[in-house]
Each structure stands twice: as structure tokens, then as C-alpha cells.
Amino acid sequence: MNSEKLLKQLHGLKTVFNDKESELTALDREIGDGDHGVNMKRGFNAVNEKVSEGSTQEILKQTGMTLMSSIGGASGPLYGFSFVKMSDAANDEIDASNLIEMLEIFSKTVAEKGKVEGGEKTMYDVISKSADVLRETGALEMDDVQKLAEETKDMVATKGRAAYFKEKSKGTIDPGAQSAVYIIHALGEGVKNG
Ligand code: ADP
Ligand code: MG
């Protein structure tokens, strides 16, 4: 995936998050404040508008800065800072093994910034296992990544707004875990055919 392809994948997330707004809103209404759909939509609409050129590293960095300033909520700084950090690891041509390195940084950044670990019912549960999926299957197929989000359904939230719901947070997929599926899938599609 060169810079052009990376830009195409990130711009494509505008359509994805426009389509998935109501799904993410519904999840965040169950175990949060109902703004995750509109947050992600606003974030990737802004990326589409503001990020239009540069090297892979510059594109990732600008995407991170744009997400940080446009998403708001807990997810904004987590996604935003992660893209900025991933820019340091990206090669000019991002292949599967480089994407594995980037996903490991994504995971480490969310862990540090969110002070989160696995099993706390957050986006981290998807992000932290995505490098292994790519390593083991050679791709980031939607079904395989979606499975990681489904695993958050039975978890009890201990971080973010969902933590206020305690046991009642069980039975709903974490909204951030679901949005992470779309971001990771889009990056995976980018490295599929070179
Ligand atoms: P807010 O919770 O401020 O309304 P969003 O609704 O946009 O923000 O994002 C909620 C998502 O953010 C959650 O579903 C969860 O995945 C993620 N999240 C919240 N706090 C943390 C944290 N400390 N670590 C990792 N992820 C978190
Ligand atoms: Mg919310």
C-alpha cells in the first residue's frame, strides 16, 4: 500500500462511517451516551476534507491530528494519537509485515493512553488482537476481525462511560470495538494486493 492507496482506504472510511452511524449510535445508546456514531462520522468526514496528499507517514500523522481535533469524546484522542504514533512506523510502501508493526504500535498506544488491558470491553480488545489475526491468516478479513468485536459482548465494562453500566453492560458489543473493526479492516484491505 503506497501513499495513494492509503489515502484511498482512509477516505473510504467516510462512506463506511456514514453507513454505520446508526449501528454505532445504537450500541453507544445501550452502554454509553449515544454519540459514538456521530463522533466517528464527524472524524472521517473531516479526514476526507482535510487530508489530501503527502507521504504515507504524513497522511497517517495528518489523519491522527484531524481525528484528535474532530471526534471529541474518549475515542478521539485514542484513535488520533494512535494514528500519529503509527506514522513513525510506516514505510513508504506498507506491506503486511509493516502493517503488523503498525498495529502493534496502535495497540501499545491505546493501552498506554487508555490505561486499559484486554477484557475491559473496549476498542483495545479488537486492536490488540488484530496483529495476530494478520500474522496467522495473512489478512484482516471482515469476519475474523468482527469475531474480536463479538467477544466484547459478554464482557463487563470497566473503562469509559460503559463502566457505569457494570453488569448491565453485558450483552452489547462495545461501540469502540465495533468502530475499530472498520478501521482495521480498511487498513487490511489496503495491503491485500500489494
Ligand atoms: P465517550 O465515551 O466520551 O462518549 P465515544 O462514545 O466516542 O466517547 O467512545 C466510546 C468508546 O471509547 C468505548 O466504546 C471504548 O471502546 C472506548 N474507550 C473509552 N474509554 C477507553 C479507555 N480508557 N481505553 C480504551 N478505550 C476506551
Ligand atoms: Mg459516547
Outline the fold blueprint.
Blueprint: H1 3-19, H2 21-31, H3 36-50, H4 56-70, H5 75-89, H6 96-114, H7 124-137, H8 142-150, H9 175-192
The chain binds adenosine-5'-diphosphate (ADP) and magnesium ion.
* Strand runs, count: 0
CATH-derived topology: Serine Threonine Protein Phosphatase 5, Tetratricopeptide repeat
Q: Write out the CATH superfamily name.
A: DhaL domain
Instruction: Describe the sheet with the most strands.
Output: none
Named once each, the bound ligands are:
adenosine-5'-diphosphate, magnesium ion
CATH class: Mainly Alpha
Extract low-pLDDT stretches.
Answer: none
The coarse overall form would be globular
Helix content: 55-70%
Q: Tell me the strand percentage band.
A: under 5%
* Computed Rg: 15 Å
The secondary structure category is: mainly alpha
Q: Averaged pLDDT, please?
A: 97
Number of domains: 1
Q: What string, H for helix and E for strand, traces the elements in order?
A: HHHHHHHHH
CATH architecture annotation: Alpha Horseshoe
Q: Determine the number of helices (DSSP H or I, runs of at least 4 residues).
A: 9
Structural features, described:
The chain has 9 helices and no strands. The protein is globular, with a radius of gyration of 15 Å. The longest helix has 19 residues, at 96-114. It has a single domain (3-188), classed as Serine Threonine Protein Phosphatase 5, Tetratricopeptide repeat (Alpha Horseshoe), CATH 1.25.40.340. The chain has 194 residues and is an all-alpha fold. 69% of the residues lie in helices and 0% in strands. It binds adenosine-5'-diphosphate (ADP) and magnesium ion. Residues 28, 32-33, 35-36, 73, 161 line the site of magnesium ion (MG).
